[in-house]
Amino acid sequence: MRFWVGLYRFFVGLFKFSPVFMLAGLMIFKVNCLIAAPISTVYAFVVASITEKFKFNDLVDCAVDNVKHLNLVFFILMLAYAMAEAFMSTGVGASLVNIALSLGVTGRTVAVVSFLVTAILSVATGTSWGTFAACAPIFLWLNHMVGGSILLTTASIAGGACFGDNIGLISDTTVVSSGIQGVEVVDRIKSQGPWSIICLVITVIAIFALSIAMGLPTESTNAAAAIDKIPHQVIVDLEAKRPSAVELLNQVKSGVPYYMAIPLILVLVVAIKGLPTLICLSVGIVASFILGSFAGTVESLKSFLDLMMSGFAEAGSWVIVMMMWVGAFGGIMNKMKAFEPLSMFVLKISKNVKQLMFMNGLLCLVGNAALADEMAQIVTVGPIIKGLVEDKVEGSEEDLYQLRLRNATFSSSLGVFGSQLIPWHVYIGFYVGILTAVYPLHNFVAFDIIKYNIMSFVTVGSILILTLTGLDKFIPRFGLPSEPKVKLKKEEKVKKPII
């Protein structure tokens, strides 16, 4: 009888998890996310109704409640798209491209430069979304001009943009993941800082080595000559799809004042002061308008407002809609406790603390893939891995605090960087949308971007391997306490009392 009960629970748990397989399958077969997400959400509604007998209105409420935490992200997205439009049209992007060219950036170094610049900017702003939106137009066209690898540069921008989102003091993922685990943000950054820097250095070396292996050119280029090589029909198509990109190319060719780089510098300064991301993006937009008016790249207030409207429309046309569906999907999966069988499985197979912590990391990665949203993973899986440590591990408060720090790092690192390895993730959809809009010369595919994202492979792989093997002890501040300082509680101590 016990066997049949266990078998029944297994298939029920598998059925609850099946919406994840549907979402992944649809995306793998290249079904548009705006179709795949609603279909999977409706299917999750059906599964939750069957398994948990939830009423339709209750499921709608939980879906809407889960979308609410994305409201701030929606505003950030709109301003990020608007700032991208402003930076491309007013000369900010052109000035940065020309400065980079004057410093001798080549096809062999452009990916490394784009990676380091986006890493610095993301730490200052605390957002990978805004960093990618602001830097992609600049570095993709710079890459075009110096003959770099479009996929390596694209993936480098993505990896660098995620660096600060994982460790920045003002990053929402850093703050939320630390809060859920009950650790101080400063302690968290001190703990993971040395490891993050090591990952950064390894990635820089790997990107440059790959650039050499590709045989990318080492000669500086003449911007005007590179732009003249773009086929006329491509310019015509680009004008129809993204007029601001054509404006950026024209400004690079004709030249703009170097002081047009100031808006980006101001964004950095304001972010370092600790002001919210919305203010940082707003400062960039306002500064680009004021300085663009002096430089003659802004014709009028009306034309600039048209740029803002274009950016808002671009964000709202599909990215925000997609995120709303994915958020609703995550809310329903959480409502029917689709991840509960996974947490029970972790408790059964973990034989020591290292294995338990390793499995906590895998839970974050699986949750990220299931929910297709790193913040949804943080708020959904975070309490689960916190409870596993509290219920399963015994040790001093100091040692348990170190475990909670690792849980917070898991939530954020495997959320932000794990998203870069999941082709159906909302992050990847955002990237492809931005890339297609600002550089339509290439047909961007999620898998192509993923395979070149060295930073994500280094980060995700290293934290899991270091945790499981205990080699993290060789990294300052990053090592976990080893047994017998911490050890799994005996089985009878974690069993619920029989009433």
UniProtKB/TrEMBL annotation:
Record domain Na+/H+ antiporter NhaC-like C-terminal: where? 28-209
Q: Which PANTHER family match?
A: MALATE-2H(+)/NA(+)-LACTATE ANTIPORTER, NA+_H+ ANTIPORTER
Q: What is the official name of this protein in its record?
A: Na+/H+ antiporter NhaC
The taxonomy runs: Bacteria, Bacillati, Bacillota, Clostridia, Peptostreptococcales
Family indicated by similarity: Belongs to the NhaC Na(+)/H(+) (TC 2.A.35) antiporter family.
List where in the cell it is found.
Cell membrane
Pfam families to which the protein is assigned, alphabetical: Na_H_antiporter
The way this protein sits in the membrane is described as: Multi-pass membrane protein
Main localization of the protein described in the UniProt heading = membrane
Supply the alphabetized keyword list.
Antiport, Cell membrane, Membrane, Transmembrane, Transmembrane helix, Transport
Q: Which residues cross the membrane?
A: 7-28, 34-51, 72-97, 109-142, 197-216, 315-334, 355-372, 421-440, 452-471
Stretches assigned to coiled coil: none
